[in-house]
Design a protein that fits this description.
Blueprint (H helix, E strand, L loop, with lengths): L2 H7 L5 H9 L3 E3 L2 E2 L14 E3 L2 E2 L7 E6 L28 E3 L7 E7 L2 H8 L7 E7 L5 H9 L13 E4 L6 E6 L6 H8 L4 E9 L2 E2 L8 E3 L2 H5 L3 H4 L3
Parallel strand pairs: 7-11
Antiparallel strand pairs: 1-2, 1-3, 3-4, 5-7, 5-13, 6-7, 8-10, 8-11, 9-10, 11-12
Helix pairs in contact: 1-2
Bound molecules: uracil (URA).
């Protein structure tokens, strides 16, 4: 990795400022001052210092994005459709989405470069709750809601665990659904198995984190306190 990139990912300087730091002889690699801008470093083995202070490897970044429909949860797309990462501007770190939302789904998406954090949120063992607001093609009957609550078999044979289901509109075409699993397109498939169809889906919460008033297409960084909600001791039942 080029030294400027290393410095910007570590949160030590923007790329431009990194170049200036290097050119002015303030950066050392393995104890030697380096002034060539294109110097390549290995983040795993090289020691980089700025003004004599060691620069730690990549800064951990935690982003909460309100995903709009039409953006893909993918690192690249051969059809060049818009990607969720296109919405983040110039964050130097390479970020991965934690779980997915379908192309036409909206709502809370977390992105991070912290693999442990992502694992704690997505691994079935931790059973983190995900809350969805759905609009349906047909009114949700009491019987269908009960089936969803108890758990039902999807078309591929997977049996869903218990869910919380609340009908939230007088015409029974809107519901809030809380699940603790994260199979691909699970909510839509659950509703299909219950004889209905999701026409709109928004994820409003992950564990105790709420989307709140964050506007569609906007993002913010998680606070340290929010990140700590998902440490090992806190994810059970979170
Ligand atoms: N369940 C779905 O069916 N779609 C999503 O995007 C998220 C959960």
């Amino acid at each position: 990795m080029r030294l400027q990139k290393f410095l910007s990912r570590a949160g030590a300087a923007s790329r431009r400022k990194g170049e200036v730091l290097i050119a002015s002889g303030r950066v050392r690699v393995n104890g030697r001052t380096v002034i060539e801008p294109g110097t390549v470093v290995d983040p795993d083995t090289d020691t980089v210092e700025v003004d004599g202070r060691k620069v730690a490897a990549e800064e951990k970044v935690y982003i909460l994005l309100h995903k709009p429909a039409g953006y893909l949860c993918s690192l690249r797309d051969r059809f060049r459709r818009p990607l969720v990462t296109d919405l983040l501007g110039d964050i130097p770190q390479r970020l991965y989405h934690v779980g997915r939302l379908d192309l036409d789904s909206e709502g809370m998406l977390l992105l991070t470069n912290d693999g442990d954090f992502a694992q704690r949120l997505t691994h079935p063992r931790h059973r983190v709750e995900k809350t969805y607001r759905v609009r349906l093609s047909d009114p949700l009957s009491g019987r269908a809601a009960e089936k969803l609550r108890r758990g039902l078999e999807l078309e591929d044979g997977f049996r869903t665990g218990p869910a919380r289901v609340e009908i939230v509109s007088p015409d029974r075409r809107e519901a809030e659904i809380v699940i603790r699993e994260g199979k691909k397109r699970q909510v839509k498939r659950m509703l299909k198995a219950a004889g209905n169809r999701v026409t709109y889906l928004q994820r409003t919460a992950i564990g105790p984190l709420r989307l709140g008033g964050l506007e569609k297409g906007r993002w913010r960084r998680l606070t340290a306190e929010e990140v700590s909600l998902f440490t090992d001791n806190n994810t059970e039942g979170g």
